[in-house]
Amino acid sequence: MKQVVEELQILPTAEEKAACDLPRISEEVNTGKQRKLYIESYGCQMNFSDSEIVTSILIDQGFDTTSSPDKADVVLLNTCSIRDNAEQKVRNRLVQFQAIKRNNPDLLVGVLGCMAERLKSKLLEEEKIVDMVVGPDAYRDLPRLISEVDEGNKAVNVFLSREETYADINPVRLTGNGVLAFISIMRGCDNMCSFCVVPYTRGRERSRDAYSIVSEAKQLFDQGYREVTLLGQNVDSYKWSATSGEEQVNFAQLLEKVALVHPDLRVRFSTSHPKDITDDVLFTMKKYENICKYIHLPAQSGNSRILELMSRTYDREWYIHKIDRIKEILGNTCGISTDMIAGFCSETEAEHQDTLSLMRYAAYDFAYMFYYSERPGTPAAKKLVDDIDIETKKRRLNEIIEVQTELSYQRNQLHVGQIQKVLIEGYSKRSEDFLKGRNTQNAMVIFPKLHYSKGQYVYVKIKEANKATLFGDIVEGYQE
Ligand code: SAH
Ligand code: SF4
Ligand code: F3S
Questions:
Q1: Fewer CB within 10 Å, N- or C-terminus of the chain?
Q2: Mean pLDDT in the chain?
Q3: At 213, is the secondary structure helix, strand, or coil?
Q4: What fold does the segment set 17-157 form as a domain?
Q5: Is 193 in the pocket of ligand 2 (CB under 6 A)?
Q6: From the CB of 196, is ligand 2 less than 6 Å away?
Q7: DSSP state at residue 29
Q8: How far apart are CA 367 and CA 341, in angstroms?
């Protein structure tokens, strides 16, 4: 499982994408506490980061964690609603838990996260084995909700807050590799992309206290972590002001504060919105070597009419201008990735071709690619017709994947011959004689281990590249 966990970064290769579809589960930690928690998380990094907050809250309440639902007293599923198949996966999992519950009737089964928020108490009726439904802003209430279930009741809290950021809660890191960590810097989303369920499941956008973010980054560095990823649905609209009102911190300023924690602490961030990313952010990235030269800038479509129907609030030209600015300020080697949706309502063949041509223009290093899945209650579900048949959606998606495969291969060839700084994340999947780590652009590099180990920076001469991975050798004593 550790392997999967490590691959759940912003990882864009086909192989790693498959890993992202797997849930992330809690580890076995036995300190002799009374009850055992098993937590399984689906969806995005924000959800994984929330599971670390939930674990922290419950460890304080007398829980140890387990990696096996059979040994648990409390089983929590932290769920995702982004596409229909994400919800289907959780439903199938709940059926499996039914069997465990038959052998252990005292087992408490709770649903957390976006599906809990979307379906609310309907989940208790639809899925008869669920005892507890808890939305993303109600995790502080978990101890009370669990006692409620202990007393024989069902428990629900799906209240969405305008303030909750869990700023004071010290997450229990579940990633296990001790090198990379995620820091949530904001919650919710105020954009209203017409296809998207997130504003309904995560509530209004709010930014976390900048100083609590910096001190979390410092603490992680002191514990040996060497890379943090700042997380939010739309990090560029981060905005926090001290209660005194004197100081306001925007995303570029936050990025700088975190970069200054230590030059050996790498900083990444996700997700950037094309309408909000500023030149200031790009110049801050340029100024600090430890801010990784990689931007996840989801386009969703390359056609202006479709972008308008999606309510993305930018058009093709605007997006192209942002790509040009990135390349002007940070150079052609800055890594760029995207999310693309195939077969959105009323998309024509020519409009689909616009998506392929935009991908070629941007020359993405990686992409997350999906076909459109209508989500109940979203503006698209209410106002537009989901009229592209599934075969066409899948065919267009395959064409998008084909173009990206070619682009990833070409982009990876650019690294061949270079000497690049790599942060070692651990052993390679196939052999303990090899290590793996990423370059600043987020591409995975594999090399013979010599006497090095995870958490160290090394310089690697890239000898070869395929569409997913770079291969090379450490250059000892190299100085930039
Ligand atoms: N906040 C991020 C993305 C969050 S969701 C952003 O604005 O880019 C992650 C990705 O899931 C989206 O970028 C989109 O490509 C995809 N997605 C969201 N809703 C979807 C839907 N209804 N059908 C298919 N893909 C969807
Ligand atoms: Fe969804 Fe759009 Fe918000 Fe991203 S920015 S979470 S796609 S509404
Ligand atoms: Fe899924 Fe919720 Fe994240 S819908 S993608 S878990 S914000």
A1: C
A2: 93
A3: helix
A4: Rossmann fold (3.40.50)
A5: yes
A6: yes
A7: B
A8: 11
Q: Which residues contact 154 (CB under 8 A, 6 or more apart)?
A: 124, 131, 132, 148
Distance CA 268, CA 441 (A): 10
Judge if the beta carbon of residue 80 lies within 6 A of ligand 3: yes
Give the CATH class of 180-411.
alpha beta
Percent with pLDDT over 90 in the chain: 87
Q: Hey, which of 117, 118, 189, 194 would you mutate to test ligand 2's pocket, going by the most ligand atoms within 8 Å of its Cβ?
A: 189
CA distance 95 to 210: 42
Please name every residue paired with 266 in a beta bridge, in sequence order, or none if there are none.
Answer: 227
Any atom of ligand 3 within 6 Å of the Cβ of 43:
yes
Atom of ligand 1 nearest to the CA of 298: 8
3-state SS of 23-59 is CEECCCECCCCCEEEEEEECCCHHHHHHHHHHHHHHH
Confidence of residue 19 (pLDDT cuts 50, 70, 90): very low
The string of pLDDT tens digits covering residues 282-341 is: 999 999 999 999 999 999 999 999 999 999 999 999 999 999 999 999 999 999 999 999
3-state SS class at 60: coil
- Find the 471 Cα to ligand 1 centroid distance in Å: 32
Asked if omega into 271 is within 30° of 0 (cis), the reply is yes
- CATH of range 419-474; options 2.60.40.1180, 2.40.50.140, 2.120.10.30, 3.20.20.80: 2.40.50.140
- The residues spanned by each domain of the chain are 17-157, 180-411, 419-474
Contact 440, 292 (CB under 8 A): yes
Q: State the DSSP code for 222.
A: H
